[in-house]
Design goal:
The chain contains 7 helices and 12 strands. Strands 1, 2, 3, 5, 6 and 7 form a 6-stranded antiparallel beta sheet that branches. By secondary structure, it is of the alpha+beta class. Helix 4 runs parallel beside helix 7 and helix 6 packs antiparallel against helix 7. It has 2 domains: 145 residues; 113 residues.
């Protein structure tokens, strides 16, 4: 997939310390990056497009998808195009999908990358490729490349709702000819109504209001998570060749639910750390069903594991049941 040539590209200083001030592997530089759209919306997919430059005699292996930062994460496999660069270098033009669940200026997901001398590569290998199986290289071979940051706008439906409310002056509603008697009558009626409501409000609130609000607040994380899980299933990704996106979606929803019910859970935790924390909080029996599914999801997303639609839907159903029943039940 080719990069859009007229989008903003933020240049990085070439050399071993390019890429937002981090130390890069020898022979690699981050030439620039852009985000499409330029200011993605909260919880809406977007793409990260960037250019890597490889010095002559170097070969790169890029991770299949972007790894989570504090606020963003990759949601699918990337695509690259390798073209000749200046001074016999090679340019790797890459596009990866991502999503953010926080607003503001946030760091983009990071790219796992491994650099080696081209002489070590077998005949016919190109200067760069996307790794389809994360087990082909040891963990020590990967470097996590920080790509930069992007501004994320707030949740659009909430922001846009005010746009349809246009204030109008009183004359547009009841006309402009108001007599003094009509004003007094409206004033007395309003005062009586407010007084009656004021007398009844404490009794109503003690009987129903406080309990209703508390009940809604208590149920909202589970309600939101179950609604999102059903939405993901209805998209049919697990039946149209996007099984990895399906796993990424429902495990991300599960993580979001866990973060809302357990403040100690943070977005920086790995899946293994998150499972361990939940086991400590609720006991191994309540988390046992999740451990295998999370492990399978990691292999599907990053290890190229193939899962049949029926298997994927069973894993989804287990996560849904865990959310529906509650971790402490």
């Amino acid at each position: 997939m080719k990069l859009r040539p007229f989008l903003l590209v933020i240049p990085a200083v070439l050399g071993p310390t390019s890429g937002q001030g981090q130390m890069l592997p020898e022979g690699l530089s981050l030439a620039g990056y852009t985000v499409v759209p330029e200011s993605p919306a909260f919880a809406e997919p977007f793409t990260v497009e960037f250019v890597l430059r490889l010095e002559p005699g170097r070969k790169a292996v890029l991770g299949r998808s972007l790894q989570p930062s504090e606020a963003m994460e990759g949601i699918g496999p990337g695509h690259i195009e390798v073209v000749p660069g200046p001074a016999d270098s090679a340019e790797v033009r890459a596009t990866y999908p991502a999503i953010s669940y926080q607003s503001g200026l946030k760091e983009l997901p990071v790219l796992p990358i491994s650099i080696e001398e081209a002489a070590r590569a077998s005949a016919g290998d190109v200067a760069a490729r996307i790794d389809s199986d994360s087990t082909t290289l040891p963990d020590s071979a990967w470097t996590m490349l920080r790509l930069g940051a992007a501004p994320v706008s707030g949740y659009l439906p909430l922001e846009d709702s005010s746009a349809v409310r246009v204030p109008r002056p009183p004359a547009d509603v009841m006309g402009g000819e108001w007599s003094i008697w009509l004003l007094l009558a409206v004033g007395f009626a309003s005062a009586a109504g407010v007084g009656g409501v004021g007398m009844m409000m404490p009794r109503w609130w003690s009987a129903t209001g406080g309990a209703l609000i508390a009940r809604l607040m208590k149920r909202s994380p589970r309600h939101d998570a179950l609604k999102e899980l059903e939405r993901l299933k209805s998209l049919g990704w697990h039946r149209n060749g996007r099984v990895d996106d399906f796993y990424a979606g429902f495990t991300r929803t599960w993580r979001g639910y866990a973060e809302r019910i357990e403040p100690a859970v943070g977005t920086g935790l790995t899946s293994t750390e998150l499972i361990a924390l939940l086991e400590k909080k609720y006991g191994p029996a309540r988390v046992k069903s999740l451990s295998g599914i999370v492990s399978t999801a990691e292999q599907v997303k990053f290890g190229g594991l193939s899962r049949a639609p029926e298997e994927a839907e069973r894993d989804w159903a287990a996560v849904r049941d865990w959310v529906r029943n509650g971790p402490a039940s």
